[in-house]
Amino acid sequence: MEQIFLDTIENYKLIEKNDTILIGFSGGMDSACLLDLLVKIKDDYNLKLIGCHFNHQVRAEAKRDEDFCKKRCEDLNIEFYSASGSMVGFARENKISEEAAGRILRKNFFNDILKKTGANKIALAHNYNDQVETLLMRIFRGTGLDGLRGMDYKDGNIIRPILNVKRADIETYIKENKIPYVEDHTNFENAYDRNKIRNLIIPYIEESLDKEISDQVFNLSTLAKNDVAFLEELTEENFLNLCKKDGLGNIIVNAEEYLKLDKALRYRLVRRIYKDLSTYIKDISYKNIISIDELFLKTSGKFIDNLGDIKIRKSYNRVIFEKNPRQEILNNYIILKEGINNVNEKIKIKIEKTNKKSAGKNYFTLAVESISGPLVIRTRENGDRIRPKGLNGSKKLKDIFIDKKIDRAKRESYLLLADNEKIFAIIDLVKSKYLYDDSKSGTYVLVSIEKEEDKHA
What we know:
By secondary structure, this protein is an alpha+beta fold. It has helices at residues 2-11, 29-45, 62-75, 87-94, 98-117, 128-140, 167-176, 193-208, 213-242, 255-258, 263-277, 286-295, 397-403, 408-411, 452-455; strands at 20-24, 48-55, 79-84, 121-123, 154-155, 158-159, 243-245, 251-254, 303-307, 310-315, 318-323, 334-335, 339-342, 347-354, 363-367, 376-378, 385-386, 395-396, 416-418, 423-426, 430-431, 444-451. The chain has 3 domains: 2-217, Rossmann fold (3-Layer(aba) Sandwich), CATH 3.40.50.620; 246-323, Uridine Diphospho-n-acetylenolpyruvylglucosamine Reductase, domain 3, CATH 3.30.465; 334-455, no CATH class. The chain has a 6-stranded mixed beta sheet with strand order 3-2-1-4-6-5, with helices on both faces. Mean pLDDT is 88; it is low at 326-331.
């Protein structure tokens, strides 16, 4: 085990001398094994190790686990940080899965500790079996070639030194070295997709179809990594040959040469260009890429400008990717709480309960009965509609912007007040008919908008 660990560090250049490494330490067997291995090489590499534990507030034993991790780090003379947050509450509040909520909370926690300590790496205890489970989950969800790569030994500042170690070998190492750990009973429950794959699907396949399924799936990851690396190298060559930057940082592509490429390389090149310019690369779908690819065949003057913060336009034999000259854009929606909400540097929104219906230039009330779910501030999404006062029915936001002659470059900067089902207002532009409803209970929510420019008017 120790030699495999050392070979992995050397082969993938995961650790260098004088590194400061945060260790994701749950207290379970995997992370206890990783912690012990890192402690053993601590002096040889002159490492500073920092244990980090996040309490998701899910299990009754969560506080026990946190206390265990703290005590274990103290015994090993390792600095320790912990934090807690409700994974279930965060998932409900943001309408995402609990697994996704857990990842976000942990990521934010690690980033906070990185800033506080000046650490340069985060070591996670993902192992061989985790890789197999991840790949199967992605296959079932319809992943492409890139997704088949699975987790990497090194991903930015994240390292996974025991990614090629099987769980059975970890168990043996723990027992032989008498390393303390805590058991997470939820690993044996099938409430989450990963546990179903671990506890039900893989054992069934091994028993009924193929005993070597885990090895074959893990090898698939290696093969995919090699193929993707080759394709990425070709993509980079095409990026350097076909794409030129102008003085504003926009990327100009020769359409004729682009269309000579194989479709797979064209799609990868689009993502490579977008990655160079945009902060929204994760939001670009397969459908979006096809639309951009088709633009290369269209006549001069055609364009696409609703993909994050990039506008793409055809100009004769060139396709130009350029930053939209937009105003400040919200990356995500903001859930409004009672009290003062800082939307951005220029806008604050105050939410309070009242029994009086009222409306003015920068304030209005909503009948509590008309609100479904939390009130949010967000930017527009494809297909958004609003029911303006005086109109019998709803209207697309796109048509409203056109009617009011709002420049395309400014449309994304308009903020929407909405709930789970409807839009109450396009702030500074249109109010919906719901703002004028009477409350049957006599209770209203008063929304007050304070803008920085209003203070100095």
